[in-house]
Fold this sequence. Notes:
31% of the residues lie in helices and 20% in strands.
Amino acid sequence: MVELLSPAGEYRSFVGAISAGADAVYLAGNMYGARASAVNFTAEEIISAIHYAHLFNRKVYLTVNTLTKNEELDKLYDFLSPLYLSGLDGVIVQDIGVILYIKEFFKDLEIHVSTQAAVTSVYGADFYDELGASRVVLARELTLNEIKKINETGIQTECFIHGAMCYSYSGLCLFSSFLGGNSGNRGRCKGPCRQPYKINNKEAYYLSLADMNTLDVIDKLIDSGIYSFKIEGRLKSPSYAAGVTSVYRKYIDFCLENPGKPLIVSEEDKNLLNFLYSRAKSGHGYYFSPSSKKMVTLDKGAYNKVDEDLERKIIEKYIDDPVKKDIGFTFEGSCGDYAGLTAYTTINGKRFETHALSDNRIEKAVKEPTSENDILRQLKKLGNTCFVLEECNITINDGFIPSSMLNNLRRQVSDSLTEQINNSDNERTLFEECINNSDNCNVLSEENDHKLENNDPLSDKNSTGSVKDLRKIAFVKSLELLNEAIKSDFYDAVVVSSKLAEDKEFRSIIEKNNKDLYIELPPIIRALNEQDISETVNFANESDFIKGIFVNQYDQYNFLKLCGFTEKSAGFEKEICAGFNVYNYNDKASCFNEELFDLRFIGAELSIKDIDDMNINKACVMVYGRAPLMYTANCVMKTTDRCSKYSDTKTDSFINLKDRIGMDFKVKLSCSDSLCFNTIYNSKPTSLHKYLEHFKKIGLNSFAYSFTDENTETFKLVTNYYKNVQNGNFSEPPFEFTAYHMKNGVL
């Protein structure tokens, strides 16, 4: 059994997808969905969709997959309750705080972990399985062999099979957010990856990936053990949802009914997919290759022209004439008695039946008595109901039955049957314990209410931190800056990239170090780079000079906790710190992460007001550094030239990516024989010098200074500037900077 999961950005798309054969449809309400620009659904439309889908034993999943602030988490209960009571089948979630909240208040609602959570390994799947999720939507960057290993864990996996591809690992992209305040993590991505950029003065669409189209390899995907096959496209038209669903339905059914038989896709079906809102270039995504320059549409990735005639035929077939549920009627009537009509149907093995009697008795016919055909003709007129008459048993003994009597009986039983079926979805009860008696992580607890006493976000309040308690952490990526950070009397701790930690010279330097030293793992752990990461962690675990590890996803945290790295050690025994991409958007998530990690970061998209609205302290904020905007599996160097892993460089190298207004984005090339990563950094470093005193006052006790490709001179300039600010000598920085998003946050 596999599930075909289709998108719906509006109700007509939903109807089209169901009619075309979708086993399930995913959609969003007017809040919490990662496609804010879609039409989306009202609560009433979602309830109607649930009831309609359940007529055919199909499912409806609601996207609640944005990072969520405290004030929004407060409203989640009222938003979900009517949908939950109406039989909502599952929710797709990114935010760890939202997952915990739903598990607390909607205990039997299925949770599917969004692709925005960047689950890339068996360790991530196991982590969310233990947390109570029933399914993980895997990162689109995984190969089929990697997915097969994750499927062996037993948790349901969901993978994309068709539609647009992001250049960054989903959920780890801040590009749109930092270029204009439209956060992809909040459903408002403006697609800067689809714009042209220059590398070495040559302009092309280096970050624009071809669409995914796996129709001709769908048999291989089925054989891999994937449970749910997901079509991307909630922003696309109803004809797209219906048309693409119909084609994949056809070939998935063929494969299931004819295992081992060769899959041959007709030209007609290929053309249907090509001319329904698809880009001119498409491919199999990452399923058969970790990366490839062939995946990139270097020329403008325009859409193929939509075939209007094809589109019209799809609309007529699947939307204007939607699928209806078969029902049966039994009619009985004779002259002088009341007419009776019984309606019945079966859904998922359960029989539903209802009965109605006419208001008046059947009168004797003056001329011709009403025939069976006359009765059948009226009973078939089910109009705008969800039903179509499959069988009708009629017993009539003389008499005249007016059409109005038959119409009234038909309406009564169809309405009653609909209500009966809908009520069968409403078997749940809400979990309504006193909220204030919930666990300490509950964001709705009054004890956790943390607000400023006035409206000035930079106002003074009683200090919970001090200069003495403050910990200053330097993140460095070169031996040159490592030496400078170790020599500096400003920094208390130094974090090095895993690439730098592999260098033999690094291992001799740290023996002379008197600071706390940490290693930051790559942004992602996958089966392809697990061995490299294991070697790094082994070294950190055994070295007397390494205090801990920084991780960037829950997969990596679980890897450290689950694995025995040496004969002497079961699991990582030192500090585990959460990096920049383990998000803390609300108190629920922050409290959870505080339990897991020795240190956690404030979210880069939060404003000073957002931070003040949270009950968070003893955390880290990046006060200086270029924000990482993208972590990518594809490599711009490989696209333009050749992969740098063939060079002799022993540290991460950088190239520049320039946009059309001349802004330079630094691209870090982290390449190895096992797996390559690119990290694209913001054009300007963030500097939060104006907020340092406020951070200390609210209890943030660690400041991070992140250096990317800075040289020694710039490193000293930045360090001396912040040293002066720390000592009360405030001035504007002697370097370009941005304070995103500290003033305005994101929508």
